[in-house]
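To whoever is on call:

I kicked off a structure prediction for a single chain this morning and the downstream step that reads the tokens threw a length-mismatch warning. I double-checked the sequence; it's 473 residues and nothing unusual in it as far as I can see. Pasting both halves so you can look.
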Amino acid sequence: MQDVAESVGIANLPDEVAIALAGDVEYRLWEIIEESIKFMRHSRRTRLKVDDVDHALKARNLEPLWGFASTSHLPFKKTVTPTGIVYSVEDDEIDLNKLIKGDMPSVPRDISFTAHWLAIEGVQPLIKENPSPAELAKLVPRTSQQTASGSASQNNPSAVPGTNTSTSTTVTPLVKHVLSRELQLYFTRLTDALARGAQEIRDAALGSVRSDPGLHQLVPYLVSWGGEQIASHLDDLGALERALDLFHAMLENPTLFIEPYLHQLTPPVLTCLLTSSLPAAPPNTYPIPLTIRTSSASLLHLLLDRHSTAYPSLRPRVTKTLLRGLGGDNRGLGGRWGAARGLSGIVGKEGGNKAVREWVGSGLKTIGELMEREEESEEGERAEAVREILTVLKASLLPSDDDTSPMDQTPPADVTELHERYGPLFGDAILERWDRGGKEIFESVPGAVKGEADEEQQQAAAEGAGAGDAMEE
């Protein structure tokens, strides 16, 4: 007690006072020990822990002991002093010379915060912050069949390690996407109405898709159904039209979040636009291949207008695909018309598009030679393709600021020069449309006598389309 009194600044504590305080302290300690033993017994243990002492102090409305835990190992050192025996915690000795000469620890990194998407509409994006598919596969719980297979292999020492003794294995998915009974019935009725219903029933079904606010869980299923219809019914123009109408209705619904499914939605639309295997429609029937390609181009332009800002690489990638469809071999006149129609909506923006204009203009003669060798599936198809390609060139031109007078008529260019620069097919078409944009194409598009544009030109044209779009925005 005298040592404690000296530590708090009380010197020369009388022996009578120290003896009285020691008796009181001993009594209080016995109270705490007995209370701690009660907590130990209620915990069904025979060993007293620091937690029991803390609970006893809290029960007595006293402050618990800080800095001690049940797992802490505190070796006490016995020291004999003139006033008696004192127990103290032994501290580790540190050699300052070794500490100074040793390597300094690395500076810890500053605390920073980063936001990322954990999941979007139930789909987890593959980014470095989220677990990879391999890590997720390790978290899949083992099924009862797998457990039974493991126990059977343990009971059978002759079994080869790594082989599965069960006949079938069921993998339990980590995340289940469960549709309600109502949504399942709605999806069945909707697809039946679109596939086999009358025109009035199809219109009612599409109207429901356009306006119903509770269809967000059906978006991946509707996109998958439409893609399957296009992939397996390229010879059925009616099925293609119904799938495209479904995509249009989904995009017109303001409550549906389509962005996570653009990688599934864009390829079917490009297939309808660029494929050369669309069948010819019988006379006096609807739809015709031109209708399918026009609807696909309109849907593609709607996708780009709405989502190219959030996905900057979407417009250049689509532009590159359309350029391949326009200048590639064995594309068919219908596929080239579709590629040109898709490009006309991309490059026909404010300020034109120099990269696409140079790519198409440099390969115009070669494209014309390819088109002359391809057969028409219907009358006038080649002329329509030529007109659409010239529309792309006209749309890619910069708007003129010159107010030309109607009296200022530039005479048409020589036919030989037009054929040399653009080929016979496009040269005659430019001459025929001289007063309707042909003169501007002749003055702005130099043409080329070399072959088809290579991959680097396609890449430059695609990047130019993306840059032009960014400038307009």
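Update from on-call: the warning came from a stale cache, not from the record. Cleared it. Sanity check on the structure: Residues 4 and 413 are 113 Å apart (CA to CA).
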